[in-house]
Amino acid sequence: MEALTNRSKAVDRRPMSVWEKAYLPEIAKGMGVTLKHFFKKKPTISFPEETRPFSPVFRGLQVLNRDEKGRERCTACGLCAVACPAEAITMEAAERKQEEQHLYREEKYAARYEINMLRCIFCGLCEEACPKDAIYLSETFTPANYKRESFIYSKQDLLIPDPVTEPELYKKALGDRAKKS
Amino acid sequence: MAEEKKLFKVTIDNITVEVEPGTTILNAARMVGGEVAPPAMCYYSKLKGSGGKCRTCLVEVAAGSTADPRPMPKLVASCRTTVMDGMIVKNITSDRVHDARAGVVEFLLLNHPLDCPICDQAGECHLQDLSYEHGKEATRYEFGKRTFKKHDLGEFIQLHMTRCILCYRCVFTAEQLTNKRVHGVLDRGDHAEIATYIEKSLDNDFIGNVIDVCPVGALTDKTFRFKNRVWFTKPMDAHRDCPTCCGEVQLWMRGEEVFRVTARKDEWGEIKEASDGKTGWICNTCRFEKKDAKDWVIEHPTHVARHSVISANHYEKMVKPTETMPEVMNGRAPKLLMDIHSVSQVNKPTINLSQIEGPAHSDDFNKG
Question: For residue A37, how many C-alpha atoms fall within 13 Å in the half-sphere facing its CB?
Answer without folding.
Answer: 6
